Amino acid sequence: MAALVGSSLGTKCPLEDVPLCDGPRRVILDLDGGGDDAWALVMLLSNEEKYNICVQAVTCSHGNARVSDVLVNVLRILASLDRLDVPVYGGASEPLITPGPTRNASHYFWGSNGFGDVEFESSFSVNTLESLHAVESMNDLFQMYPNKIALLAVGPLTNLALLYKMYPETRDKIAGLYLLGGNRHGVGNTALAAEFNFFRDPEAAHIVLNNSPMIVHVFPWETVLLQTFTTKWRFETFRQSTNPAVQVLNQVENVVYAQEEIWTPCDMYVAAIFLNGSILQTVKSYRAEVELTGTVTRGMMAILHHVKDVNQHNVAVIDEIDAAEVERMLVALNDFK
Questions:
Q1: Cα 140 to chain center, whole Å?
Q2: What value does the mean pLDDT take over residues 45-65?
Q3: Residue 181 CB neighbour total at 10 angstroms
Q4: Quick check: is 105 in a domain?
Q5: What is the DSSP letter of 312?
Q6: How many domains does the chain have?
Q7: What is the average pLDDT score of the chain?
Q8: Which residues, 6+ apart, have CB-to-CB distance to 103 below 8 Å?
Q9: Residue 241 domain-assigned (yes or no)
Q10: Residue 265 is part of which domain span?
């Protein structure tokens, strides 16, 4: 479902397939509509000119909320930034194998609608959106701009797994793949030993890691825990922000983080490393598999340390980043233009 106002004719990405040296780096953001997804979107849109990138499209998946709510959350952020030119597509509404895991194992941290169930003054309808599915839009775009569009996937990987299975020829046309998900030491953020995005659709994560022709850059949960900010810092830093998208997120996170001491804008980190590769400090390649049958480990990303042959490696795990530079990039979001 693509917003009529956000057709590909309206996006700031050039219509013609220009050489990378002459045009911006194109990116698709595949998300599941929580507040941290919104921070990733804001980080990208606020830095298109500075880092010479353009957001080709936003594709939406189940995860933090129902797809219909995810679409509304994305439109709310885009509207706040006057960026409804960015195409938005609705995608998978459930994991590949149903029924999916219950929320008893991973509560609704972002509320039932992904934005803290805040009652905003304005509302958005998804009834005026086109019917093109996110997976079809991904295929069209990767075919149109082969090896020119990177994909940042910061929700469950259902859309990407479906793309790989429906249009396998497209796999070789993705310029780069960056994930927020998985765990490299067995530390999860669900009731089981798995990170939420992989936990929500383990089969999809398995398909992606085993079928991507390129090394997949993975920002795992344990690295998020090393880079956290205090909620005190978060609220003091953005309380007086003039960025309208940050003002929206202030309303959301005043509710979600009211009783929390640590702020974890997980998905934002993937946007930051895509924009600014210099913040990467420790990245190691491994062979990784996703556990599908374990009683308490289903969805866990298992690192096969005994596989030393780099030709068999499928992930580049990001262990350390320049936290001070990420902080600078976050603070800069207050300078809305």
A1: 20
A2: 96
A3: 31
A4: no
A5: G
A6: 1
A7: 93
A8: none
A9: yes
A10: 25-94+118-333
Q: Alpha helix locations (H) across the chain?
A: 35-45, 67-80, 134-144, 158-166, 196-200, 202-211, 221-226, 231-238, 244-256, 266-275, 323-332
190 touches 105 (CB < 8 A): yes
Tens digit of each residue's pLDDT (9 = 90 or more) over 211-238: 999 999 999 999 999 988 999 999 999 9
What are the Cα distances from residue 198, in Å, to 83, 157, 334?
A: 30, 7, 32
Q: Cα(271)–Cα(18) distance, rounded to whole angstroms?
A: 23
Pairing of strands 216-219, 315-321: parallel
Residue 262 lies inside a defined structural domain of this protein: yes
**pTM summary value:** 0.95
SS3 285: strand
The enclosing domain of 310 has a CATH number of 3.90.245.10
Condensed to tens digits (0 to 9), the pLDDT of residues 154-181 reads: 999 999 999 999 999 999 999 999 999 9
Identify whether 106 is part of a domain.
no
Q: How far is residue 61's CA from residue 29's CA, in Å, rounded to a whole number? A: 11
